[in-house]
Amino acid sequence: MIKAPEKSSVLGLPIHLLDNYSQWLLQRQREGHGAHVVTLNAEMAMLGEKNPQVAEAIKEADLVIPDGAGVVIYLGIRGKKQQRCPGIELAESLIEGLARPGELIAFYGGKPGVADLAADKWRDSLPGVSIITNHGYLSDEEQCRWLEVLSQKQPRLILVGLGVPRQEYWIRQHRHLCPGAIWIGVGGSFDVWSGLIDRAPRFFRDNHLEWFYRLYQEPWRWRRMLVLPLFFLRSFLH
Q1: Using the 8-state DSSP alphabet, how is residue 156 labeled?
Q2: Along the 238 residues of the chain, how does pLDDT read in single tens digits?
Q3: Which residues pair with 157 in a beta bridge?
């Protein structure tokens, strides 16, 4: 039986510490258990501290990973050495791990056409991968049909790009439809895979500056980024 990961906390929210999150999830799935994965960063931690619904969704997840550099720094201040695990990289590792006959993956979210384009890029680079898609602007009727598709086809991996916290709420509400699946909120990953936006170069990722590169690409995010200095202050005072 797979061993439960070590558990710590960030601003009172759970965080799980592992060397290889993808391996742990795939082993858990082989043992017959699905999982809801939350990718925690500083912005989400601050939101969870203010919003009880967000905090509850995070606390109910089966695995909470350190997606943001701020979370890793927060843990390091408390003597917990943990490598950052960006949600997009975890998702990529799981897609590669499930790219075999009989394994189905679902992409849900983004603007119309984006998830389709992301799936096409994966099909080109990883022959044999099987992906179904839908965008994140469905009518109520279309939503019902999409849920029926998921229930009938039982994908093994369901990636949801609806933004925080909408994607966490949606997974929490519907994960019972595919209890054996790994469900992950992946934010804007479909935009990256589709080629609509570029991910930060390695230098920025390795030096905890990916947030800065994203702000450069999407300057309208500046208000959201204001939580970062507050989070670092809380890291030392909490």
Answers
A1: S
A2: 888 999 999 999 999 999 999 999 999 999 999 999 999 999 999 999 999 999 999 999 999 999 988 999 999 999 999 999 999 999 999 999 999 888 999 999 999 999 999 999 999 999 889 999 999 999 999 999 999 999 999 999 999 999 999 999 999 999 999 999 999 999 999 999 999 987 767 776 666 667 666 655 666 554 666 677 788 787 777 6
A3: 105, 182
Q: In angstroms, rounded to a whole number, what is the distance separating the alpha carbons of residues 10 and 118? A: 32
Please enumerate in sequence order all residues whose Cβ is within 8 A of that of 82, keeping only pairs 6 or more positions apart, or say none.
17, 66, 72, 75, 76
Give the E-state strand segments of 78-199 in sequence order: 104-109, 130-134, 157-161, 182-185
Integer-rounded Cα Rg, in Å, for the chain is 17
Please state the pTM of the whole predicted model.
Answer: 0.91
Q: How many CB atoms lie within 10 A of CB 209?
A: 15
Q: How many helices (H) and strands (E) does the chain have?
A: 13, 8
Please tell me the distance from the alpha carbon of residue 95 to that of residue 236, in angstroms, as a whole number. 37
Of the candidates 180, 226, 170, 185, the residue with the CA atom closest to the CA atom of residue 26:
180
